[in-house]
């Protein structure tokens, strides 16, 4: 502090801010000190915290593109899905429900939305969706469930089930309700800057 002319008050406030943001940890007493904490997740979405390799575009930008594209594709799937498409969605839901690890669950979610994208029967947009999914999976290094995720996981599964049910029955009211709940569940209220922009939450 003396070397750089920084007062103890300024240093303490700086450390407090860094601790609050989980960027450093401070251990008091003999043998203690300041250490750099593990890097925070770049993306916090729904019940998952996600870490990625450095990339351009930023992972949040990839997620924003993915969510906006899925918004349109899911609407198209509501209008165009066949019985076989609905059966494929239900099979994807079985995989989601059987996923106990965070990375496994994230992969199952991506697979589910890939099935919905295929049900839109717009090959060009489906191809764009596959490209985005491939880009996201290629740079993902770690996925972790948030604390107390079990009730949130149950809600997420129910929302996805409701989307499938609304598509199967061509119920527009239930479909809109399920899509809105799906979008709301994605935003991490306590850390919106690391949650992607979505069609319902610009």
From TrEMBL:
Among its keywords, does the record have DNA-binding? Answer: yes
Where is each GntR C-terminal domain found? 61-185
Instruction: Cite the SMART domains for this sequence.
Output: FCD
Q: Name one GO molecular function term.
A: DNA binding
Record keywords: DNA-binding, Transcription, Transcription regulation
What highest taxon heads this organism's lineage?
Bacteria
Query: What PANTHER family does this protein map onto?
Result: TRANSCRIPTIONAL REGULATOR, GNTR FAMILY (PTHR43537), UXU OPERON TRANSCRIPTIONAL REGULATOR (PTHR43537:SF5)
Q: What is the protein name stated in its UniProt record?
A: GntR C-terminal domain-containing protein
């Amino acid at each position: 502090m003396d070397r750089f002319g920084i007062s103890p008050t300024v240093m303490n406030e700086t450390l407090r801010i860094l601790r609050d943001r989980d960027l450093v940890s401070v251990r008091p007493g003999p043998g203690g000190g300041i250490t750099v904490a593990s890097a925070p997740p770049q993306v916090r979405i729904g019940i998952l915290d996600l870490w990625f390799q450095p990339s351009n575009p930023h992972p949040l930008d990839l997620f924003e593109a993915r969510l906006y594209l899925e918004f349109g594709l899911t609407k198209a799937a509501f209008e165009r899905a066949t019985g076989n498409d609905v059966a494929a969605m239900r099979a994807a839901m079985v995989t989601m429900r059987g996923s106990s690890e965070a990375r496994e669950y994230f992969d199952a979610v991506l697979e589910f939305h890939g099935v919905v994208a295929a049900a839109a029967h717009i090959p060009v947009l489906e191809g764009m969706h596959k490209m985005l999914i491939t880009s996201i999976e290629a740079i993902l290094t770690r996925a972790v469930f948030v604390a107390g995720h079990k009730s949130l996981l149950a809600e997420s599964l129910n929302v996805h089930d409701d989307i499938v049910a609304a598509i199967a029955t061509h119920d527009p009211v239930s479909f809109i309700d399920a899509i809105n709940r799906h979008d709301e569940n994605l935003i991490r209220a306590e850390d919106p800057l690391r949650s992607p922009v979505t069609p319902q939450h610009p």
